[in-house]
Structures are given as C-alpha cells and as structure tokens.
Amino acid sequence: MNNISVSPLTGPKPTTDPEDKSIVSNDYSTGIGALILSLVLILGVPGNLFIVWSILARIRRHSVTTLLILNLACADGFLMALTIFFIIYLAMQTWVFGNAMCKILFYLCNSNMYASIFLITLMSVHRLLAVVFPHTLSHLITRKVVRRVILGTWVLVMVISIPSLVFRDVREDTDDYNQTRYYAFETVAGFIIPYAIIIISYVLILKRLRETKFQRNVRSEKLILAIVITFGLFWLPYHVINMVQVAAEWYPEHSAIRKRLDTISQSSRAVTSALAFISSCANPVLYTFAGKSYIKKNGFAFMAKMFEGTSSDQTGTKSTRFMTKDNLGESNVDFQNHTVASTPENGS
Description:
Layout: E1 4-5, E2 13-14, H1 27-58, H2 64-92, H3 98-132, H4 134-140, H5 143-160, H6 163-167, H7 176-211, H8 219-248, H9 256-290, H10 292-298, H11 302-307, E3 321-326, E4 329-334
Antiparallel strand pairs: 1-2, 3-4
Helix pairs in contact: 1-2, 1-9, 2-3, 2-9, 3-4, 3-5, 3-7, 3-8, 7-8, 8-9
C-alpha cells in the first residue's frame, strides 16, 4: 500500500514501476499542493461556517438564491474539513488511511464537485427565469418546489458520484481504461454540460436585458457571475488534466506521445486538484468583497445584512411589483413591463 500515488480528487493509483514519476515523487508539486490545501483548510472551514451561521441565525426569510448559497456553503465547508487527510498524505508521501477511507473520501470529494456546479447552475437558471420568465417564477416556483429541487439535486449528486466508489481503489490491478472512462464522464457531467447550461442562461439574460428599457447595474447579478467564473477558473485546470489523461489512452502504450501526456497528467495532478479545492473557499471572500460597504456599519452581521432583503424575491409571491434600490435611489418596478434582477440589499 506504500507504492501508490493519490490526489484529492483522483484517488490512489498504483505505481509499481520504480521509474514512474508519480505525483508523490514530485517534491515541488506535492509541496505546492500541501501549501494550497493548508491555506484552503485555514480559510475555507471558518469562512463557510460563517456563511451558514449568517444565513441561519441572522436571516428570517430565505430567498431562492440564499437557499442555494446556504447549500453551497454547507457542501464547501464539509469538503474543506476533509483536506486534512490530503495534507497528511502529501506530507508523508504515502496513503496511510486504508482502502475504505480512499473510497469514502474520494466519493465525498466528487459529491462536492457535482453539488457545487449543480447548485451554481441552479442559481443561473433561477436568474434566467427571474429575468426572462418573471411570471413563471412568481406563479410556478413555490418554496416547496424550490426545496424539492434542492433535495433532488443532492440525491442526484449522491447517485452520480457512486462510480467513484468503483473506480477509486488502493490496489495493484487498477484498470486504467475504466479510470480513463471515468475521467471523461466526470468532466462531461461535472463541467461541460453544467457550464453549457450556465452560458446559455446568461446569454439569454443579456439578450433579454438588451431588449428592454429597464437596464441597470445589478450587484447580485455580478456576485452570481463572479461565483460562476471563479468556479470555472479553479476547476478548469483539473478537467484539462482529465482530458490529457483521456487523450493519452488514444495512443499506443509505449509511444512517446503517450508517455509525455502521462508525465504531464501525473506531475500536474497534485497542483490542479489543490487548485480545485480553492473554489470551495473562494466564495466567502467574494461575499466579503460584495458586502464590504456593510462591514463598518453592521460588523459580523454584514453578510446577513447583504442578503436580508431577499424576501422581495421570495417564491410564490403574488405581487408583481417590487421595490428596488440601487445607487440611483429607490424606485418601483412593474414586473409586467420590465425584467427584474434585484440587488442584494433587497433581492437576490
């Protein structure tokens, strides 16, 4: 069990060839990975716990976006607590927690990846409905529907992560072909398809805003877009390495190109996996910057203050008029004539 390599999101992989440059044999890569994960642990756990506390303890009524952010913070905070195992692994350069923990930890890491991107996708689709189909949002999307959708998302996450229990193992007979197929599935289901939905949603949102006279600078739209972009930037290298490893399987086993691609993927796994973890501690930083104008006035309650006005975005409301507030002051917005994307001060 000592002769293996493992990364936080790829799991253990046997390295029976003593000349094989595994990720644990690369001191530079593992050192950077351990440093990144240590910072992620220090910042990510308290940051996400603070978000959960702010929403649960400080906000009486939760909007759709707030509920999604709450679930995202729970998933991210839980993942951050798991980084201690991978920090120990990178420091010791051997997996000491056994086969069962390998499967469980990788399953939980994969579940977080899917949960994060699916919840972010739901945020984007919700904004699309709010801007393009406001009547659908107010009449069909009730609080019960939202809770069922979120629960269904978690069920889907747990089901879609099951293959990781099969393809991740501490053993000497790992099937590289099956692992490669899983890498492809992971990237398509956990990145390409969700991001395609997100991009389509924002294209339609921008198109709708250009077609209407009601256009203004909306903080919440920028915040959600920042979450989307941040997730993509930190996860893209990981999925690129997935595709590099998939591409390696297209070439003969002893070809120079395959060896080069294998070297790239093996030497980059620790760093790209650690970068992916950063996305789970980046959101608290984004929220802090978005709510910095509230910090002096509200102290530790600044994040709750930033989201407390989201009751105007409550699902199932019968009202078609909302009070919006931006830098130009307050104004009534007719939902029948304009598209509405509320600011954090009074909408999500």
